[in-house]
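We examine the record.
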Amino acid sequence: MRNILQPEFEGYPRTRLNEKAIALEKGRFIEGVSSVPVLLKPLDSSEYKVKFKNEEVKNDVGAKAEDFIYMIDNSDGIKAAVMGHAPHWRNVSTFLDTSWTDTNGKPHYFFDVSTKGIGIVKSEVLEDYDYDTLKVSNEYDVNINLGHANKDDFFWMEDLVTFTQKLNSIGIRSELYWAIAEVDKISYNGELYDVADAKRQGLVHRSKDNNPYIGVRLLKSNHRIEDYSKKTSPDDKREMLLSVYDAFNKETTLTGRAFPQLDINNPEHQKIYFETVLTQHVQNLALLINNGLTYYHMHSSNLTLMGEIVDTAVVESVNINQTDQFQNFEEEYDTSARTDLYKGIRLGYLKDIRDCLTGIRSLFRSLNNDGYKVLNRDEAHSKIVATFNGIFDKEKMKIFDSETDVEKLLQVVEEISRRILVERETLPALKRNGIENWNLRSL
């Protein structure tokens, strides 16, 4: 049992079985599903192999990344009583304050440890879920493990331990990976199986390379804009915001930034919160593009309520000029959809601009509808444009992507922001529609 205080949940006492190491953790919200605890078993060191690890992460309680390598295991007979806290479909979170200092000497602070790849969580909290209907391939026809992660979740251009350090070091508020491990277990229907047995039984795809991985990442908050906007319970939404405000205030104390300690009941503090998160997401957008990076999945489910981006394995480098900062993307993957130029701007940049600003609008609407004070639409639009223009470096763009028309890019940011925030227009998602459907007047 690791030495971190575990939360207690009313009506769900810890198991007293000594042979089980139990952790009751919080995870992401699932629409329409009530929150209850999840029963987890830390894996023995013989059941996993750490592939990548950030050895520079610090905390005050002696916790190690390996303490957070665990999977769902309800096989001790109390499965019917403890069904799982309702998070995202394969990750849970633990509150722990950690820090890491980048190569520039700047400290970064995190308050949430998220373990990704623990097994099917969503099905644990849905009644009468038919496991046999679960697919073993995703929307891109790539073989996946059910509720687990594989190597591609944590290694794209390079391993995410290295890559997320780079993102944070250039000023992008991002998840920071603490460790990535290959595991010899999978969790299926609340029970642990050896990978070899699971493959023989067809529980996971039999591909030789389809072995489960677990990632342990650090975040300021794992609550996403989508999570908040889709919640229907006022109490649940307030609880989520209280957690986020607590993280916000911790960061203020640790960094010494010029903010008061925010009170969720203070309208002026509510406005400070929204304006700050808006600014952070727009800065992330500008820095990604300025470094020749396309995210292509910058939608509200990957934008946190603390101004961070997550699931960064999908970030690609255009790397037209072959700079050393980010390695060129593997040629075996087709990246043409995002790197192709459309009237002087890469499709990936256009999609990221649209997705990010649509996510900000979602947060704007949700907070406003819930009675929290935010900027008005014109103010939000002006803040977006000023923030992007203020951080975007035209000369730097010549280094990382000399083929993009910078002036057109800035005009597009203004137009998309105005149309989404002020004119309340919804630009269709590029995954299902052509860019021509946007009718961009600035191009």
In short: The two ends are 58 Å apart (CA to CA). Residues 225-438 form one domain. DSSP finds ten helices and 16 strands in the chain. The CA atoms of residues 322 and 413 lie 26 Å apart.
